[in-house]
Fold each of these.
Amino acid sequence: MTLGSFLNKRLAAASKREKAEVVVKNAKIVDVFTLETYEADVAITDGMIVGVGFYEGVTEIDANGAYMAPSFIDGHVHIESAMVPPEEFAKIVVPRGVTTIMADPHEIANVGGFEAVKYMIEASKELPLDVKIMVPSCVPATNFEHNGADITTDEIETLFDELHAYGLAEVMDYPAVLSGEENMVSKLSAAWKRGKIIDGHAAGLDDVGLNAYRVAGIRNDHEAVTAEEGLARIRRGMYLLMREGTAAKDIEALLPIVTPQNGRRCVFATDDKHLDDLIHEGSIDASVRKAIELGIEPLQAIQMASLNAAECFGLNEKGAIAPGYEANFLLIRNLESLDIESVYVKGQCVAKNGEMTVTVREPIAPPTYLLESVRLKPLSSEQLDLNITGNKAHVIGVKPGSIVTEHLIEEVDVNNGLFQTSVTKNHLKLVVAERHHKLGHVGVGIMKGIRIKEGAIVATVAHDSHNIVACGTDDQSISFAINQIAQQQGGIAVVKGSEVLANLPLPLAGLMSLQPFEKINESLQQLEDGLKQIGFEEEWNPFLTLSFLALPVIPSLKLTDTGLFDVEQFSHIDVSAKE
């Protein structure tokens, strides 16, 4: 059918010359343009809303007085953080009311490069979830660590031109932007020339840095963690993406700046959210609920999750209940509690009462090399030694609920010049081991904030290069944990000595499981039990926190496979601190 035929068919239904294919009746429409509700029929043909008023349909849906709201858009998400491929991810978030996501496959790209992004594009097709793939802009994220692959400007252009990637994902190498570094400018220009959206990653940037980002064409940012930072972005014409994930929870700090005047520049994003949190809390629906609980009017919270996000990303046919918009909507019984009864995509019911009502196609088989991505050079015991001059050291301070760390200088226990862990002081050994090319690089540092009393925890999820990251109370546990995770080609584990207490294999790039999400959730519960066995009693998730301790583009102090990294100085430093 030609475009003209489609248009004629929709016009016939809109003008009532023919019945609409579907009409929703007895609904209270959530108008995200005026922030009011009103009652009317909504006519749908070819998956598009063609009329609001009084209509007759071939099929009529009785909403029974429910609110009819546009479905939600996640402004920035790494699917890999849920440890499932796109097909399983759709099964989790669609029943929660999320029908569109701006997905950045940055994590798997750092393992497998261009071909890994191609895989994610293919795996995202023909789903009830509209996955807009943003091309990773910084692979590797920095030159201060070793990842699995690079993505060049030529490859970015190919992803734009031949595979229809939607935009350029978070630009996190801010020194390259500020200095006008040639390679970075070429990537930005590739997006500019094609009219593509460019995402920001302005963690810790001052006003001058934000000015440069905006001049570079970067129009949004999800790294504001204070009200002042959020307002600085809005004042520069950026969209403020309010992040609420597992490790980073910024909504409460940012919401106080939202007013009727600036609220249209605010959008929700999850960024990184673990599977169990998605299941138990939700996705963008959880952000909307939290905003309402913190005092935002329900209609404005829904507007932020739909129309604002659609306009931020140029999704001109999404985000509202109005003619000319896709019929992606929710039927909600109570706006305050956001009780979602059913989810519709292009006029078809795809989920009801928290369960999918349509079958999601079978997963796309990943390339074999993504299933063989852990290549670790054997560790020697000496590589885990940490030499300390004196008794003071630079310590990575973990802050629960944040991916930003503190740069601490503390007295540590030292024996014969070697650092000794201390459960009393909560000084654990942190290790990052290169796992892509058998280079043998091992970074060792000290961390404080993940309170375990014995053993170690380990993962191949370590943003952004995804080397192996482990922390523990003794070298035996740490060494065993690293070798165990390498032998099984990736995953997350809790160990004590030479015993595996709990384990979740992640064979797909060391980041994702190939099991149904329900099975993965069972393994996550076993990991929680394993954590209790080694003395972790906190309510927050230490694994996602651990995964960000190797990310040298988020302040303040991090550890890479080549050593301790001061993000403020943007350089490596010695662990020993001067007296």
Amino acid sequence: MVQMATKFSKRQLLLALGKTAGAATMYQAMTTLGFAAQSNYKGAPNLAGAPKGTRVLILGAGLAGMVAAYELRKAGYTVKILEYNQRAGGRCWTIRGGDSYTELGGATQKCKFDPGLYINPGPWRIPYHHHAVLGYCKQFGIRLEPFIQVNYNALVHSTKAFGGKPQKYRDIQADFQGHTAELLSKAVNSGALDQQFSAQDREKLLDAMQHWGGLTQEKTYRPSLESSLRRGFKVEPGGGLMPTHEFSTPMDHQELVDSKLWKRIVDGQELEFQSSIFQPAGGMDMIAKAFERETKGLVRYNAKVVRIHQDDKKVQVSFRNSDGMGAEQVETADWCVCTLPLSILSQIPLTASSSMLAAINAVPYEGSVKIGLQFKRRFWEQDEHIYGGISYTDTPIQKIAYPNTDYGKPGKGVLLGAYVWGANAFEFTAMSPAQRIRKAVEYGGHLHKQYAEEFDNGVAVGWHRVPWVHGCYGKWSDEARERHYKNLCQIDNRIVLAGEHASFIPAWMEGAVLSSLDAIERLHTMVVATAKSA
């Protein structure tokens, strides 16, 4: 018999919602109860009254650095950016055919993708509520197209369930909801919830479960029109003298629960993914290229920062060519916005307070690997009718994501053959690029039998081997945030830090942009106050 507590605390209610209705419902409840909020972008910063001739040096031409440069120059500041790479964008990066990339350790990959095909090794999607990034896309005329997060025709896979055979996302979702709805309906009819709900409310709950779970009029989940409209038919309805349609059979409830594949269906219900998601047409670096155009003439490329010194009057930054050639050079400014990743900044001699230095050293960087695979044809569309979306697997590659553009186009296609996190990411990063690619093809064959025959070429980026960041993103612990976060974000004499690591939206471009806007607005206030008191 189902046992229910007679009273719910807020925490118990949120946990119950999360387990039964998914993360999206839980997050919305959290918002209602005052426990969560959306992005707080409020538009361009107010930088009126900038003292004429004030020089600001920006370290790093990623999105945080370019946002700062764009807004500060517009306000009248004299701005310069030092950037390690020969391009702007940082982790906002796209790899196309003809591109070369050399990782730490010296391994060089030359991408052989066909023209027009690409992979985004860093950011690859923009949620609907990332208002700052979307605002700059609109302002700069960056064309956006849909990013398909959830495709019910994609796959979920476990090597330990269903004989290792991949299952359709829609089957897992429909059957999990259907079986759960039937169980709850039985609990209602058995009287197990009589103390918690009135008779009228019990009827409403039964009606809700019938519609939510695709139950029959008898409140059962079995082969029927209702369940087949959710999970698909064994024989699809046709026309004329085509075979008569047949209902599909739901999978066994216990086998479904034991498989744990139901955990995968929550991804699309998380706040970032439950509504429209976007990608720039042609690659994520369209955003970086737009900022590069808007900050033309401000970026000094191929500049590796080796020392940062400040006193009460200026900031002095020493740098040399990133390729190691040439003599050490110095750039001086009145103020500095440093957007270097903490994984890099922690290795550079820096004149700063002990509290800021401690904060810089308190944040490790998460590992991640992305592998782009080009195939001879778009078999996922032609053979399996998967147009965009993501498949999930318990093999080390974790995800396969299908391209969200050029549907039905003949010729070759590129998909994201692996998106690896955690311990698997460190294992893959320790491999050579060629080994990573071979493993991605091997594991991908568990989901798509066409992999081995159709594979053409690939590229693999392990973020701890990326020279300008040494990791994927700043991975704060709750304890580290409590102790160090405010110290990291404070203006330290004449230096302020910005980037996704200085935000509560780590690993997202939105976090980098919001952090930068906040940093330059606070810096501007200090600059104006300092000028008035001089």
Amino acid sequence: MEWGKIWVLGVCMLLFVTSGYAQGKQPEKDKLQHSRSLNRLNKARSPYLQQHADNPVDWYEWGDEALEKARKENKPLIISIGYAACHWCHVMEHESFMDSTVAKLMNDNFVAIKIDREERPDIDQIYMNAAQLLTGSGGWPLNAFALPDGRPFYAGTYFPKAQWKDLLRQISDIYKNQHEKAVAQAKAVTQGIRSQEVITVAGKADPGFTTEAYDKLFDGWDSRIDHKRGGYARAPKFPLPVGWEFLLQYHYLTGNKEALKAVTTTLDAMSRGGIYDQVGGGFARYSTDARWFAPHFEKMLYDNGQLVSLYAHAYQVTNEEKYAGVIRETLDFIAREMTHTSGGFYSSLNADSEGEEGKFYVWTKKELENALDSKTAKLLIDYFQVTVSGNWEGGKNILYRKSDAGTFAQKHNIAREQWEETLAQARKTLLKERSKRIRPTTDDKILTGWNALMLKGYVNAYLALGEKSYLEAAVKNAGFLEKNMMGEDGHLWRNYKDGEAGIDGFLDDYALLADAYIQLYQATFNVHWLRLAKKITGYAITHFRDENSGMFYYTSDQSENLVARKMEITDNVIPASNSVMAGVLYRLGEYFYDKDHIRMSRTMLAHTEEYMAKGGPYYANWAMLMGLIAYQPYEIAVMGGDAGTKSHDLQKKYLPTALFMGGTAENLPLLENKLVDGETMIYVCRDKVCQLPVQEVRDALDQLEKDW
């Protein structure tokens, strides 16, 4: 993740500690023996917190008990934040938190709190801001030191054991003997946190968004893009799917071929690289290098959900079968390894197994030769760039490709169909062989917002490929979330684990689920999903919206009072919850003729308009909303008994500025006076002006291509 350097003015840091991500192999587990009794995290519901239950550190979960203990004993807090799939979080645990001498320093001088950032992103936001303000960078594990009331005065990321012990002693000494300096630092840092990514000024009353302004947005992207290897011109490389989604929309609206080329180059390179699981499907979180070769091996639900949608849209644009293959393989992985029987989706797979990062996924040349017949093994060794010495640690190989299946088949004078059949069978064999290994652990908590991204991915895969099982999986997940994560008034829970939901939802849960339900409505014409989107959006307006600025806080007005109440504005590995909510408001406003919703959306967009040209992928979702508004959406109503089939035929095409509705007249203003008897009719409208209804999909597509 690319963090900008932000400094607290006028604050001198008293400690100079080198902090950052270590390189090289994970160390052996500390040999010091300690009591194996479990600490209070044994009762935590988070799989990540449970991983720390055998630490000798006297960990607390975030809550009144820990804060009250700190106040009563006048001890500073250690707030240590990570997540189950985080490799360097495990490294620091093994090096430091399993060490009895380190634990004694922590237990004697601090109150230590462990936090799963995926459960409590609201807390993570605050202390990540602190790290950025104090050190200019951030990441996980995140370790912050704070006053008993939670105000941070120092924060950093990974610390090797020796540095961590030195830091503990220095912080403890300053807190005890120079207390006023710690308080002054905490006051300044907290002030800085409260001023970051919070908009308080009123928005423009009537902002205008023009096609000319939108068309210029691509000008600032060229220098960011790695046109040869795909992605952005940097290392490490994160997929950041929303940026490529914007460029697909930009290509659709402007006809710019360079924008499309940037997308296809990226998607081709990612699917050939080590970031993609060449045996089992699915994507790792990011590549540590500039060529998508060496991943951090954790697999996150949110990445795979968004990337399924992205490859589905790319398939709609290009009709390239290789993109369909990535979709199918990724969804096979999700169904096989990340889906609860009730229809919910798990959060992540660990990077590590048997104490080693990536061990589950890498191969020796000998292992491939033993698993496959000699002819097939020879071909796969060439196809996946496998060598005797290996391209990874310990003579192992990360499987990756330099060419697609067609080019490889031609090189070896094999019929493409024959090679694809051989490859598919070999992958099944290798997958079966790999399943005998010790698996990475699964973080099996079910998060509302992340599930919404996967739900939307399944819907988009169905629309692109027509595979009904994908729509069935989407509907099952949508029903699971409605039943288990939603209250009668539209309130959402964030987390589901072991049959129970808990933790009040955050803005991303509301925005992403409403967005997914709107997409599911368009695929099914079941108005129930659209009404649910409206209900949970209504709850968010009541409890999250700042009346003055028109933006939404990340936390509800019903949430606990943390040291700062933040807004999420810039898009990143997941689009910002405010940008998603702005898009939801606009679409609901169009569906229900709700001028207030449209006004809210336009006001939110106006706050970010000046940043879009320079912000690139970090304002990409906002830019997509600008394109929708500037070019005006198509309203496509398909009415009659064959509405589902004809609507799906239309939605096989990439139509990013179209809103679909229909089936029967279901109390939507846009469906009033549309015929529902007799032949199925297609109405193509824009700004409430409709072309003559047509019966054929081709005729409707022709109307979309006309100048209005």
Amino acid sequence: MALQLPRHRAHRVLVHRDVPVPMPDGVTLLADRYVPVGADRPPTVLIRSPYGRAGVVGWMYGRMFAWHGFHVVIQSCRGGFGSGGLLDPLGDEREDGLATVMWMRAQSWYGGSFAMHGPSYLGYAQWAIAAEAPDLRAMATQVTASCFRDAAYVGGSFALESTLVWTTLTAGMEGRLGGAAATFLAPRRTRRAVRSGLSGRPLSELDLVSAGRPLPFFRDLIAHHADPSSAYWRKRDFSASVGEVTAEVTMTGGWYDVFLPWQLKDYKAMRAAGRQPHLTIGPWYHADLRLGRVASAGALAWFRAHLLGDPSGLRTSPVRLYVTGADEWRDYPDWPVPGTRTERWHLQPGGALSTDNPAPSGPDRFRYDPRHPTPVLGGPVLIGNSTPRDNRRLESRRDVLVYTSPVLAADTDLIGEVSADLYIRTSTEHADVVVRVCDVHPNGTSMNVCEGVRRLTPAELPDPDGVRRIRVDLWPIAHRFRRGHRIRVHVAGGAYPRISRNPGTGDPLGPGAALVCCDHEVLHDPARPSAILLPRAVRS
């Protein structure tokens, strides 16, 4: 999808740096204003960021939107890059965002309406105020969601790699080397830290290795893991108000992004409320530079349509998806895509996978050892390349079950949500179940397509035979399994360091002295037909 920035009369841009914005509690936040010369009180684009205001943020957002005639305010969130107060990630964005809007309304240059723009945390800052700002007319969100809790504890497990790399990154962005160096160093330091976790260092101390000091937000995430209804997360969760947002919203996501399932949940919440957001999902991961140009061009067209009355840059269909495997863009009227049907592909004896009902058979078994947790190859991470990788090395492990379909006689398009319906027996009450779908090419390479995890607890009672029927939600997909390829499913007990290892004891910190191996049994017989549920698409 080659999107070009619309050509309109260019404005000369003036920049006012370090503009003070007072908060009700006496703290002052700093902002940069980008002013399009000759535009009379134009609409404003507000961008609130914890990553600073200079460099790429200033050029890609500030100058670009102002050049096209918008007044732009880029503000540093509380506790960073000159803004006062203490850094409390996710905790102050509603109050500070609404106070900033009140400040804008009092300025002589404010034209009475504004838009918001930005990816990841910048998108979360949009949702934090969206339902309470009636003069917010348009939003352009990318690779983000209205609540980050479920991405931090995906499937009930702890998303160790992404949470540690983000807290390490933000801790180093204002250091001597600056943001670019922090972005490069944070993944390396995180990898070193998670390796130390395998040598007995408690999970709660991995920040000492990655950042050299305690990171309060990382420790808060660990401390508030158990209770999703806690005051901590209620303050940081804006998902309940998504349906109340009246601004026109466009969403850009990636099939390999860590926030994709919850971004699509926000889309469906808006649709349920009668709204019609636009949705674009490409073959991108969270930090993918390719996404930036597409998102900026789409945001500019969106803002011109909904703040300047120029819809010429908008596409007709509200949903545009890139179908991996087919390598093509397709337009649809909605998500989930109309005309799909759910197919059950059953796990079979002997490592087979098919739509046939399973034959009578005994369970498949593997042992998960938290001292040597099952690793992961590819899949969504916050910082780093998340595009698919060959998983054959992982499939050769004794702690990974593999089920493979026959060679496909025709192209098979799967577009929608993916889940697994499994019958599991475990030797410990606390265990993780990881499920992954791979595309096996004719040459044998096995490329991961999507995955998911479910953390089991004693609250999920087994039947009299000790079997628990569980649902594992995987990442949504739009993928073509080509003729001659095969569909493959993994079942494992871990995906380290994507998720923290499960110690088998119920202690999320998992100290090295208390690690218990877990024997897993996966049943696949006529009475307990474990299956992967795939969304088969029928092209019109």
